[in-house]
What we know:
The protein is mainly alpha-helical.
Amino acid sequence: MALPAPQGRRSSTFTRLLRHGFIDPSAAGKLLDAPELASVRDDSVLLEALGATADPDLALLGLVRLVEAQEPDEQQALLSTLVSAKPLRDRLLGVLGASEALADHLTRHPHDWQSLVTYESVDLHPTTPEFEQALAEGIWGERGAGLSRADALRVAYRRSLLGIAARDVCGTTDVAEAAAELADLATATVRAALEIASEEQPEDAAVCLLSVIAMGKCGGRELNYVSDVDVIFVGESRDGTPEDEAVRAATRLAARMMRLCSDVTPEGTIWPVDANLRPEGRNGPLVRTLSSHLAYYQRWAKTWEFQALLKARPMAGDVELGTAYVDALSPMVWQVSERENFVTDVRQMRRRVVENIPAAQVDRELKLGPGGLRDVEFAVQLLQLVHGRSDATLRSATTLEALAALAAGGYVGREDAAALDTAYRFLRTLEHRIQLYRMRRTHLMPEEDADLRRLARSLGVRGEPVHTLRKEWKWHAREVRRLHEKLFYRPLLDAVAHLETGETRLSAKAAGHRLEALGYADPVGALRHLEALASGVTRKAAIQRTLLPVLLAWFADSADPDAGLLNFRKVSDALGKTPWYLRLLRDEGAAAENLARVLSAGRFAPDLLLRAPEAVALLGAPDGLRPRGRAALEQEVLAAVGRAGASETAVAAARGVRRRELFRTAAADLIGAYGTEGSPAEEDRGHLVDAVGSAVSDVNAVTLAGALRAAVREQWGDTLPTRFTVIGMGRFGGHELSYGSDADVLFVHEPREGASEQEAAKAAQAVANEMRRLLQLPSADPPLPIDADLRPEGRSGPLVRTLASYAAYYRRWSLVWEAQALLRAEPVAGDVELGQRFVELIDPLRYPAEGLGDDAVREIRRLKARMESERLPRGADPTTHAKLGRGGLSDVEWTVQLMQMRHGWEIPGLRTTRTREALAAAHAADLIGTEEAQTLDEAWVLAARVRNAVMLVRGRPGDTFPVDGRELAAVGRYLGYEEGHVGEMLDDYRRITRRARGVVEELFYGA
């Protein structure tokens, strides 16, 4: 009977294994007790070596599997060598502790561990020739005997990969050297695969020349462990063979070569060979002649295709043909920054990458996420394209080499380049070790603690590995994001500030080229502004040098970077000596970005801000962009009017409040439309329109209330001889004002007890006229025109009427269009009780009992048809006129208003002055179908946003899209279209409004 092991010994082994980093000491103890490890079970050197690996448990399991796979007489040789030879011990156990996939390979091919024994100098840093020799021996030599060529290629590839991984995890090579070795191995593999293909298809090989051009990371000699190998194929005829026949033969060779690498065989796969970077992508021929390539790139190629060619290098096949390809296309690469749409194309490429990341993965993306590898690579490539046309030292295909060259030439700051180099190496190392574990293509940080622990230990982190790794990763990602912006803009500031001596700086010409490439139309003017902002040793200049790199990036992301920079200079000139201003931008995270968005989005908001720059404080306050509401605003305005002296001074105070609130509303609208890093763009576009309409209507209403108070007080003190109220009409009454709308109103009065009608009428007329005068006085504040043309008898009628006069007129003379206009009537200022009585007076008129008669409906339709033919401005495009055009605001509003007048008497929800509310009520009452209601709502919101956008961009109202290209692009950005998509914007507008017009034809005209 066997006795159990002494408890003390078991406890001692358990503790020892824990101390050496084993997660499951019990399982590890059982593995060590395996008979195959009897000779080394108690070897302290082996245990120390296992404990030094990324995952001691995984390394021990892999070792046991490898020993078990040996022939019995070979097991001891492996273990003896392992214990006595430190280089092998570190390499083999390092690989077994980092890669489950390579452990599987060693189990299937148990003799391949011997490839890790040699430790000659040439073995430390092999290049393509050494890999070619190793693959040739594995395919055509004794080792390949008994295997198909495809399987022999896979086995030989994995054997070479073992050496690369071993040098990597042991620190013999750094991440850049490992990436270069992986690319060299890929080159040797493609060459071997092409040789096999030629061996299998000698007839094809005999009639064509084929060159394989490496692209992407392989072309840049910075490949991952598991990555597609991007290539382009070039073919030519040989020995007089007809060109088309030669191209077909080359295509068959290329396709076979690709399958040899990517097919899954009993020995697995190597990696996919991806030829999608070729002209026309997947839709284009796999192989082209050199002349065909040149013709395509000269005529059809897009910016991203030239950017991809930065990495091009001859890889396999005919060397002379490959060299001719690169030599012919290289000049085109370095001229691409002069293309008309270069800036737009570059921005779109970066946005497309970010937008295609699944939301659930964006926080784990090492490559494509914010602060990821692509940020570094993209920035370096853009700077190469901008400055490489005049500086050949920048034309390296390798990211880190190019970054070093940019720093050496003064194109990026040396410290920034060094920090970015460190961050990039860290992120690439993470990427390598994640892929190495199971040899799977992934760029996602793992989520399980066990995976994070192994990853951290592979980087040498021992104390609290999971927490430390997460912390370091986030720090490096933040560094990349911070430096990504500085990389472009810090050298521009250094070029104009002239603070440090001995540093290589951008020349004025190079700085101008960079600004042009980043979207600045006037680089000379931009440099002048930068010099004014960043020069000197004052606190203001120092803080602005810190802020400007990121501000310049935000400006460049707008439709008018030059205006953004100019406006920032103006604001800083006005407020730069104010302590709170620079502190606000420096310390309040959102304030600087909000300011940049507002200053570069058009003329309206910056003009408002520059008239009173202190309003910039709203951009940093927690609730600074939230509408204040009518009650709070009215209290503020009436208090300001009360404190003022003369009526003109009082109304100036009220208009100052209006200016501030218009800025608040415009800033909130722009930031909601564009979005910021901390807050995505508002998806509900209708909410943006409603917010603007309500806010502008509220501020105009309280401004009228202030003007009314000032006008009354100036001549009559606290009490006017007549009660007086202002009724909002049109968009004003409907809470749907845009930034440039007039205030449509009716003036109503009722003599007070004891006052004669003549005296009351005279006072009311004087007050109305004084209000109009005061609100249009020349001032730095935007005027508020009052339009009373919707009153009875229009311009021919009295400006002010008594309530009784309105009642008499409407009872006797009112036309159907006047009843329709009253649908939007709502009291906005003055005597509340009188305003309510006016509403009670007009309700039966606008919501007639039993609805409209047929004659009235016909009259409304006739008026609408007449308006369409007569009121559209001459030369205006009816398909894009937001107010009067097809499917625009007027179409939708008249359709909704007809439903209100026909059914408002019986459906309470229709008794509203707001178009969208009435439309929703009509849908709820089944007066309009769901699809039709959505179509009208979408068109109305879009048309309203176009009007708002035109005012924000141009600084003056308009109902049509701007003609100027930059202004049109700015309108597009506000509406959610990226640069270069204004054609799509116009097409979408026409499509949406055309569908709305179809609904109008059916519901309004009864077609």
